[in-house]
Amino acid sequence: MEKIILNIIFIIVLFSNSIFADNYFVKSEIKNGELKLYFSSNIEGVKYFTIPTDDGATKFVYDIYGATLPKGKGISHHTYKTVESFRIAQNNSERVRVVIKSSQKSLNRHAYRDNLLVIPLRDNQDASISGRTIANIGKKDKKIVVIDAGHGGKDNGACCKGIVEKNIVFNIAKKVKIKLENMGYRVYMTRNSDRFIKLPKRTEFANRKMADVFVSIHANAAPTLRRAKLFRGIEIYYLSPAKSERAKRAAEKENSVMLEHKDYYTKNAYLSLLNREKIVESHKLGLDVRRYIVKNLRKRYKIHDSGVKTANFWVLVGAQMPSILVEVGYITNPIEGKNLLTDKYQSLLAKGIAKGIDRYIKNNY
Ligand SMILES: [Zn+2]
Predict the structure, then answer these.
(1) How far is the C-alpha of 120 from the C-alpha of 36, rounded, in Å?
(2) CB atoms within 10 A of CB 279
(3) Within a domain: 258
């Protein structure tokens, strides 16, 4: 059923897209009771109106003309005491729409100048804009990447003959971070030590950091040791309804740590899935990362490339930016398992992941 809905929405969105202007939504923040929205160039105009809702709340709507919402960008991560939800969407080809649902009956006057729109959330205070605006964001701002080393703390991930997934992926993640920083990116890791983090916290972190890209790093294991030799290769996943048996199995394994949070995901999963842009962009990111991993590792090793696939990895649910999960190989495979422990192999893998991310960002931002 979800798949049918997904396809219909896919088609609708596909045909409703047309030529966009060049004024991109860049970032948002809440400061001193004001929601501030920054764009890449001057705002043409803002139309404001309200809609009462059935449950007694009010929707405050701001149409920003000539503006474009880049893939993966959002404002739904914001929270404010009187506000139930923050939404931003491409309303049509010529305007971006911001909807704030609040228990308040009215909001004070908004204001915009240059590339900045300020919406007051606090009572009794009109919006004010002072000082410089465009200079605050600067186009040279570093792109932000969040790297998620899978598992941690009480959750070891896959284990085989003393090889523990959480340690291997942490080492690789650290190497990716350093390589990306050397390329000029701002990089955050969801964990900087061996500690347990719940899956939703990982994407929440990436949303909070306004990441442009989220990459989760994992290692795989064969279902039984008897079949260890049969399972090998690098697999890259992006979020979409799972298709192959192997993809489903990998997703079940990585998801198992969060079974008690199943309700949270069933409620939120498909909301986040219904975003064509993010699915397409995550796929592109996956293809770039795969290409460079294969290219780097093949210089020295015989490796098996299992391509880019779709699966329901809950760790990717809720990410507001293009996001993928990389299974760097099978620790249960006699050859791959041994390679994954070496510094050389880990470095080449990390180099491939970093270069793939770099390629994706350079081509798409
Ligand atoms: Zn894992």
Answers:
(1) 9
(2) 19
(3) yes
Same structural domain, 67 and 121: yes
Residues 84 and 167 in one domain: no
CA of 253 to the centre of ligand 1 (A): 7
Q: How far is the CA of 168 from the centre of ligand 1 (A)?
A: 10
Q: Are residues 185 and 50 in the same domain?
A: no
Buried b (16+ CB within 10 A) or exposed e, 198-227: ebbebbbbbbebbbbbbbbbbbbbbeeeee
Rg (CA), the chain: 22
List the one residue out of 236, 261, 258, 257 whose CA is nearest residue 311: 236
Give the pTM.
0.61
**Which protein residues have a CB closer than 5 Å to ligand 1 (ion)?**
150, 157, 218, 254
Our separate counts of H helices and E strands in the chain read 9, 17
The Cα 113–Cα 269 span in angstroms is: 37
Give distance in angstroms: CA of 282 to centre of ligand 1. Answer: 19
- Cα-to-chain-centroid distance, residue 337: 29
Three-class SS state of 175: helix
How many CA atoms does the CB half-sphere of 71 hold within 13 Å? 21
Question: Is residue 257 pLDDT above 90, yes or no?
Answer: no
Is there a single domain that holds both residue 207 and residue 348?
A: yes
pLDDT at 296 over 60: yes
* Pairing mode, strands 34-39 and 83-92: unpaired
| Mean pLDDT calculated for residue range 48-62 | 90
Residue 249 Cα, ligand 1 centroid: separation in angstroms?
Answer: 12
Ligand 1 centroid, distance to 156 Cα (angstroms): 8
Cα 233 to Cα 146, 156, 190, 307, 364: the distances in Å are 24, 21, 25, 9, 28
